[in-house]
Amino acid sequence: MSRTITVKGTGKVSARPDYIVLSMTLETRDKDYDKAMDTAAQQLQQLDDALIAADFEKSSIKTTGFNVRADYSHENDGSGRWSQIFKGYVVSHSLKLEFDLDMKRLSDALNAASGCLSHPQLSIAFTVKDPTAINEELLRSAAANARRKAEILCEASGVQLGSLTAIDYNWNELNVFSATRYSMTEDCECEAAPMAAKAMDITPDDINLSDTAAFVWEIIQDK
Q: Less CB within 10 Å around the terminal CB: N or C of the chain?
């Protein structure tokens, strides 16, 4: 029976953000379905027009989610009986705008979005343009870490490290975003909203990632 050694390797990578993701959510409600949909379309057009006027390409404004639901409330008639009351249709439209890290460019986008009549909810995140490169570096780091541990353990135990026989890795999607949060007050007055979006010369925190994988090697012989 062949002898083996199993080692868990931990990879660590740090990267500087170079990309901005501006997430926007439009929401409208009306008791009439057609009116709710028409208003949602108008809001989207207003947002598109505002961002295009700020020199963003229409093709760069991507839909990430679209949902239409019936909204109900539950009311007590005073005698202990509850009834479901139809409140209207709610249309939610989620979008994103991505561009290279440029705080002046971000200011332009925020001014355009917050100043338009549709008043979208805004969320800003900092990431990297090419997450694949970071993921690959992370896996190489985990593999190198595991092999180094295995070599040390074998050397300390008076045996030699043989061939790699198995790798166990959980392919979960990594959260390649900086911990830095850039937010705007949602309840600011309409005229003050553009003022809140003035460019700030900030440097987002580095993105720090770690991941693990298990490696199995043969132990080929005693020294």
A: N
Place of tokens 């990430």: 64
Among residues 148, 35, 28, 136, which one has the least CA distance to residue 90?
28
Q: Is residue 156 classed exposed, middle or buried when 0-12, 13-18 and 19+ CB atoms within 10 A define those classes?
A: exposed
131: three-class secondary structure by DSSP:
helix
* Nearest of 127, 119, 93 to residue 22 by alpha carbon: 127
For residue 168, give the amino acid letter. Answer: D
Which residues face 215 on adjacent strands? 7, 167
Q: State the pTM of this model.
A: 0.80
Task: For the chain of 223 residues, list the mean pLDDT of each consecutive stretch of 10.
Answer: 90 95 95 95 95 94 95 82 89 96 93 88 93 93 97 93 94 88 58 49 90 95 63
